[in-house]
Amino acid sequence: MAGSASQSLSDYEIYEEIGRGRHSTVYRGRKHFTLDFVAVKSIDREHSQRIKYQVSILKQMSHENIMKFFTWYQTPNNIWVCMEYCVGGNLANLLKQDRQLPEPCLRLFAKDIACGLQYVHSKQIVYCDLKPSNILLTEFAVLKLCDFGLARNLKDGPPDENVPRSKRGTPHYMSPEQFNSKAVFSVASDIWSFGCLLYEMACGQVPFPQWPMRELVKEIRNSAPPQMPSHVSPEFVDLVTRCLQKSVSKRITWPEICSHPFWESPLPLLIEHKRESLAPLALSDVSSIHNTPTQAGSAGKDRDEERTNAELNSTSNSLDSDQEHSNPKTEDDEDDDVDTEDDELLQTLRPSSTSNGSVVIGGDAEQRPAVAAPGTNRRQTISVLPLAEKPLTVGDLMEHECDVMVRPLVGNTRIEKMPSMVFVATTLPFAALDIESILSLQHTDLERFLKDVYRALDRKGTNSAERLNVLKYFIPLCTNTGFANCVINSGIMSMLIQQAGNEPQPELKMYFIHAMGTLIRYASYIGAHLASASIFEVLANLSRSPNAKIRRHAVATLGELLFYVATQEPNAQVNAPGAPSSDVAPRRDENNNWAIPACAIGTVIRGLRAGEDNVVRHYAAKTIENVAAQSPGSAIEWFATPEIVLALVQIFQSTTHKALRVTSAAALSQLLRRSSTTLFKRVLPRFGWLFLIGGLEIDSAKCQQAFFNMLLSAIANEIAPLDFDPIILIEYSIHIIENATSLIRAKALLTLALIFTKHVDHFAYLRFAFSHKLNNALERTAKDKDDYVQKAAAFLVQSVTAAVQSLIEAVATACVSSDISSALTPKQIVAFPVILSCATSPHLKHAAITAQSVQWLSRLITNRSAPGKATSPISISDVLCIVDALASDTDLLTSGAIPGRIVQHLLPSLISLIRPKIGVSNPELSSEENFSDGTRFFCIKLITDILSTLLPSLYDRGHLLNQMRSSTTSALHSLMMKEILPLIPGILNEKDPIPQYGIRLLSVMVDANLDLVSSLESIGILPLFIDLLSDREQVTLGNVKIVSAIVRSGHVDLSWLYGLDLVPKLNSVLSYSFGRSADLLSDPVLDIILHLLQHEPRNESIEALLDNAEFLLSLMLSNDAILCEKATTCVQYLVQRYPEAHFILWSSTMALSSLGNALANPRSTPGAIASILQTVSCLAISGDTRVAASLRSHRASDLHRSLRSVQDRPDLDRDVARMARDLLESIK
């Protein structure tokens, strides 16, 4: 347990929920014995490391613009963090309402944010997620930064895996450098976010509102924000503009911010401009490379950004297919987890020197972005219809954008380590220009440079070592799309193909192939002339080389080319095996004409064979995965054969290499889901359902994603009969929902929905699912704010609803029958608890409880209580538990036709279960049918709960509302008068606890309908409730409420009540409630006292209240404002009507202190303050010299102080404040 040993969570009183996040819930709380409220945040225990990191940062903070942290605790399932309670909500909600703020408000808010953010930076901490929803407002409109979940402590060094990583934030507030390779958050990036926030407060929207992510990144990098409205000053515009400088070196710093003229007076400076000491751990402060202004170059950049940003978008929505992080792997890292997600974004090329004088351009290949493979014809995410417009179908939700996300082959360090690109610049036969310089060359100079490269690589003019050095310089340049587009469609590419095919030196041959692959990967336009250059045939021949590294690079390059053709040319044709490429007339259009020779496809297929090098097999499987995932045309048919499917299954089952296993599963999933269902139907019997289910047990998110996708496709398309027992799949899916990432959780939800929809025994499996915590899983899902998860959960709820409603229809039909047992099938009887499980679930309650349900529930109850009826096979306890779920839901009880059905059918049936032992015997019932006291007690409770909701909506202050006079209301009134009230005397004579619930039931009825008091009087049980007031063991809130109704009804003579010693008994209750801090009893007692004082100007019996004056004084200090006001009004009446009370009440120090403290109590309402002031005024003019002396003595110092403070309360009108001032003057 965190915190001091003497403290625990029980030190806090937890109230209502005030907020909810994906993994947390926030409650309003109060520490015992204080008046200070706090925000208590409950977080799932699984996030303990992250919370501890956040707490370690919060402990360092102490600033008026930072939310205060008090303490934290751990319980078995949750972590509880106690923080400052800000009643004003967050800035995001305020901006939704007001949109554009006036400049005075802008300046006030901006100062608070700037001061808080500068303080954070002064602690060597980067905030990392500055946005409106992370800024709270106090009741005095002071802004406070909160939620340091993504903050980074620069003094701690590089973060470990439990600390939030870079690229985790809100994209619309992220700076340009954060979208570069290896960038992390920095002080400068926080200042950019500050500028975005200022702009939003002034303009009503963020400076870059574009979406999707690809468009947003472009705008942030390259565009200026829209012009700000005219109502803001030039100084404000200048501040925002300098915050939003693209270049980090030009962005405004803290000394400049603090001295900016917008503030009118300088802000205090906490930190000097020390860019080095506050620099990020791995900031890549490099601007984006601008391609040549050609259509092809622009398209290439867009293509790479789109692939990368799809992954960033996935990360920001917590839909990663891979949540485990590690370093890049080689083919030998079989024991390491290869299911990682790179944080690298678009690569920026910048030369750097090595220790030996060599130069590296673009870094190692391991540093390149892991992005989806090229293609402008990309498969789009399925648009999902909102549930409110149309019921969801599995087709709407089967595919998520992450399901079509792929990674490239060339340069993929998860498959193999890339060759070194370190070159010696001094030995190059031309100047070693960097990529920026090359792209800025004039056309003639660029041609000359490319000719130099061509000659240097030409076999005739250079030796092997020199050409290898040129290739190591040349290949990193090819990672720029503009350069790649220029080279790949020139003679250099043809030369590379020729050299790769003819070069005898293995290492040099491998680099030539790698250069070809790099160009294909990064180019956005590749002319079909490459086919005539025999590139397919050359790569196919190279894939047969005895040198494993040559085979690897050849298959990777071929895979990239096939992927490009598949995504660019939907109808590209494949030659028949053995036919020359010229024999096929390819489809032609104005851009491309491709014909894929059979040897190219055969090379990929051959790469899957057992005995082949594992890296080659990996490249072959990855090619199939990429083509199948994103081909918009018929290219998937290249590989859609049973032999390839079974080869992928064999790889998955036999390999010990994790990366290869993951890729084979992904390729298998893409093939089976995207090809015709005929293929799936042919191969599923070969490996069976259990193979698909078993794949879910692999400890890899990407593997689980692949196998869930195959299962969903097979079940939805009815590939084969569901001839397996789904229990294992259901159990595992529920476990996944509780523990997996959002994407996998959504897939598990969809799988459950399909099982409950498609399986013939879905009732049995629904019951199994509920018994294995399906409701808990749904509750866990409700905390996940991801849109895809919410839609999947909605589809599951929709599927369960359909199944349950069919069961309800069957039960309803059976209830009409004279013999329910024969009308229901055994499966339906066994499945009845499913309705109960749905009724107790907040997510499924609407499916189980309808107006129709109320009617057949009533029939089931009546069937059990009526003589001569056959025994129902459905448990009466299950039926009553469903009614209990209805009774606990106010919205359901009062919606639609349900109230009428309750009054007409349900309440009479419940009353029938109370009767057997209460004077209405039923000799025909067997001993089993004579319901236990527990059942009858439960029925009384249910009636009480139902009436406590229905009656307040029909009555006001004990009298029926005119607009509520209807047949339902008349029926309810008749039911209470004729059916329930006659049972009360018998209920009160039962053994405990039935009488207690009978009293509570009666209190609910008479408190709402005071006319029932006359019926109680005719029954002759009124004295019983007065007598119970004197029995401290028996007195209850219900009993006191009944007496309150008796007093207020007007049907009973008050003198008769005085004769029953009502006032002394009220004193007894008041004394008891004060001693036990039972404010619930005090409230109705004060109602009775107030009524007596208001309707009896002076009565000797009421004078007995003076005996408990100290209790009334203490209640004036209650935290409950209503209780405080009632007690104050009681004291006011006593002082005004009983002069002898003056000295009794106010001669003691306790009395005077209570009066002063009540005035100072912030919970005291204006009405209570006015009553206290009137009471003091009455004392001041009473003429009692003893009272006057007390009011002027030192014992009244608290009262004097409070009278002065009351004058400054803003919620009091002028007359009350003037009364306080006059009283203070008169009693001095």
Automatic annotation (TrEMBL):
PROSITE patterns attached to this UniProt entry: PROTEIN_KINASE_ATP, PROTEIN_KINASE_DOM, PROTEIN_KINASE_ST
Record key words, sorted: ATP-binding, Mitochondrion, Nucleotide-binding
InterPro entries membership: ARM-like (IPR011989), ARM-type_fold (IPR016024), HEAT_ULK4_RUNKEL (IPR056981), Kinase-like_dom_sf (IPR011009), Prot_kinase_dom (IPR000719), Protein_kinase_ATP_BS (IPR017441), RUK (IPR044591), Ser/Thr_kinase_AS (IPR008271)
Annotated residues for binding of ATP: K41
Protein origin, superkingdom: Eukaryota
Residue span of region Disordered: 289-377
Biased composition (Polar residues): 310-320, 349-358
Biased composition (Basic and acidic residues): 300-309
Stretches assigned to the Protein kinase domain: 12-263
Amino acid composition bias (Acidic residues), ranges on this chain: 331-345
Keyword field contains Transmembrane helix: no
Keyword Kinase among record annotations: no
Gene Ontology MF terms: ATP binding; microtubule binding; protein kinase activity
Entry protein name: Protein kinase domain-containing protein
